[in-house]
């Protein structure tokens, strides 16, 4: 999951609930032992989650001014999470509401855009990535539970329907289905034996007959094999960037480059050091574990 983080959601929800003055005397809970005021709640929440939540809220405002995230992008990412997480996603939506999840996804997409804009991929990075592909192939698959469904999909493929569309429609492997069945690059020992044997025996662009494994029935399409570096360089640069975008530390470092150019003045004395270099990096790392 990339990453609706329960911890981050909880922390931000806490601060949102306590969006009031720390001196607010409004009673939110009564007990025989005494009342709890909004001010007390805010003060305690600020101590435990204030810096990390303030970091996210400010980052989102700064990044939102510089980068554009569309409703379509947010909805696509939410559908991806819903497909990947199933019941867990439904529980998050029920607890926090769809609007709140949209806000979290928007923040994630903003940080990704900042990362793409600020992370540099060198020729050395690209060459290293290419070297790592030795002995690997790239393939996609459509995974279904029974042979009958696999045969139906095979017929549709022979009639000319797109593999990627059928993967999104039928595959029970939710992680790859949202990517049109793409499994990325893998070595022979990276998959179960029967799957690997079938995949590595295919020619590039060729589609297998249904292959049975312990997970069900796979229809496999070999999409790429490692070629000459100069022929693959442009594509590899993009893949190397995607790999770096999966490194949270690299993403946060890129976000910090944008934040350093922003004029941020924290008025709360308890949180005034939030965006000092060391404090900010610490808070971002904690909040960015999503």
UniProtKB/TrEMBL annotation:
The lineage of its organism: Bacteria, Bacillati, Bacillota, Bacilli, Bacillales. Residues 270-290 are annotated as: Disordered. Plays a major role in protein secretion by helping the post-translocational extracellular folding of several secreted proteins. Pfam families: Rotamase, Trigger_C. Keywords: Cell membrane, Isomerase, Lipoprotein, Membrane, Palmitate, Rotamase, Signal. One of its GO terms (molecular function) is peptidyl-prolyl cis-trans isomerase activity. It is a lipid-anchor. One of its GO terms (biological process) is protein transport. Its main location: membrane. Its EC number is 5.2.1.8. This is Foldase protein PrsA. Residues 279-290 have a biased composition (Low complexity). It is found in: Cell membrane. Residues 1-18 form the signal peptide. It comes from Bacillus tequilensis. Residues 134-224 form the PpiC domain. HAMAP family: Foldase_PrsA (MF_01145). PANTHER family: FOLDASE PROTEIN PRSA (PTHR47245:SF1), PEPTIDYLPROLYL ISOMERASE (PTHR47245). GO terms for cellular component: plasma membrane. It catalyses: [protein]-peptidylproline (omega=180) = [protein]-peptidylproline (omega=0). It comes from the Bacteria. InterPro entries: Foldase_PrsA (IPR023059), PPIase_dom_sf (IPR046357), PPIase_PpiC (IPR000297), PPIase_PpiC_CS (IPR023058), PrsA_foldase (IPR050245), Trigger_fac_C (IPR008880), Trigger_fac_C_sf (IPR037041), Trigger_fact/SurA_dom_sf (IPR027304). Belongs to the PrsA family.
């Amino acid at each position: 999951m990339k990453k609706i983080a329960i911890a981050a959601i909880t922390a931000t929800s806490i601060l949102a609930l306590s969006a009031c003055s720390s001196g607010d005397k409004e009673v939110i809970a009564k007990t025989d032992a005494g009342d709890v005021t909004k001010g007390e709640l805010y003060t305690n929440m600020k101590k435990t989650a204030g810096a990390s939540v303030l970091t996210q809220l400010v980052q989102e405002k700064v990044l939102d001014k510089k980068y554009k995230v569309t409703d379509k992008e947010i909805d696509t990412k939410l559908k991806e999470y819903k497909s990947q997480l199933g019941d867990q996603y439904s529980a998050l939506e029920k607890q926090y509401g769809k609007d709140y999840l949209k806000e979290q996804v928007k923040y994630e997409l903003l940080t990704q855009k900042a990362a793409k804009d600020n992370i540099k991929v060198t020729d050395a990075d690209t060459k290293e990535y290419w070297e790592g592909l030795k002995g690997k192939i790239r393939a996609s698959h459509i995974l279904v539970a029974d042979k009958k469904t696999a045969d139906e999909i095979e017929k549709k493929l022979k009639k000319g329907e797109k593999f990627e569309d059928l993967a999104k429609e039928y595959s029970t492997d939710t992680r790859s289905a949202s990517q049109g069945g793409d499994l990325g690059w893998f070595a022979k020992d990276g998959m179960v034996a029967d799957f690997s044997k079938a995949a590595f025996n295919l020619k590039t662009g060729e589609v297998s007959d249904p292959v049975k494994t312990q997970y069900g029935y796979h229809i496999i399409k070999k999409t790429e094999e490692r070629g000459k570096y100069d022929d693959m360089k442009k594509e590899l640069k993009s893949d190397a960037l995607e790999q770096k975008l999966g490194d949270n530390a690299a993403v946060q470092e890129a976000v910090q480059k944008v934040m350093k150019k922003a004029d941020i003045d924290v008025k709360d004395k308890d949180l005034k050091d939030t965006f000092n270099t060391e404090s900010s990096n610490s808070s971002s790392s904690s909040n960015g574990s999503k």
